[in-house]
Amino acid sequence: MIRHIIAAIATLLALWAVVFMMELDRKAERFKQIEEIIEKSKEVPIPNVSEPVVKQQQESEAEKRKEEEDEVAKKLKALKERAGSAMAFKVSPLYKQKCSSCHGVNGEGAVGPRLIGKSEDYIYEALASFKSGSRKNYVMYGLLSKMSDDDLKALSTEIGTFKEKLDAANR
Ligand code: HEC
After folding, report:
1. Which residues does ligand 1 sit against, CB inside 6 Å?
2. Looking at ligand 1, which residue's alpha carbon is closest to its atom 33?
3. Domain 93-170 class in CATH
4. Domain boundary assignment for the chain
């Protein structure tokens, strides 16, 4: 009886072994197939094809980046020009420092009245009378009392040319 049982177990083991071996074989077969696929894929000259493609991509990306940078540079320049166009023409440092805050960068007027278009003589008359106190304005008096007559003349002459300069800038 025991022998029968042992024989049965042995048969089962043998059967299991056969199934196991078959399973191993199938796995090995699959590995072989995979290996073959890998091997075959190596034969395809992927690098030769993909290298130029990658290079092209990199080049076009670099070009794109450069274009974007150019765009930014252009916009900055345009912005600067627009910001700069608030100042249509250059003024002396003296005018810029002492007068532009109230009369505008080009004498167009702000807190203080518009100066552009007024004659040199008129400006000088006004400045001199502010300074002497015959024309009363506390702000202008305070400012001009520390300035020399030469400064007043120079400023008058300069402001007298503002209109001409603006016209030239807009031409
Ligand atoms: C803090 C502001 C301020 C500053 C800075 C200033 N001004 Fe004036 N300016 C005025 C005001 C306000 C008036 C108007 C005064 C009035 O008419 O009584 C005026 C008037 C004048 C006038 C007379 C204009 C007219 O139509 O009669 C002249 C010219 C003038 N300023 C030139 C200058 C010059 C040149 C400078 C620089 C040295 C200067 N101002 C700086 C505020 C200023």
Report:
1. 98-99, 101-103, 111-113, 115, 123, 126-127, 137, 139-140, 143, 155
2. 99
3. mainly alpha
4. 1-44, 46-85, 93-170
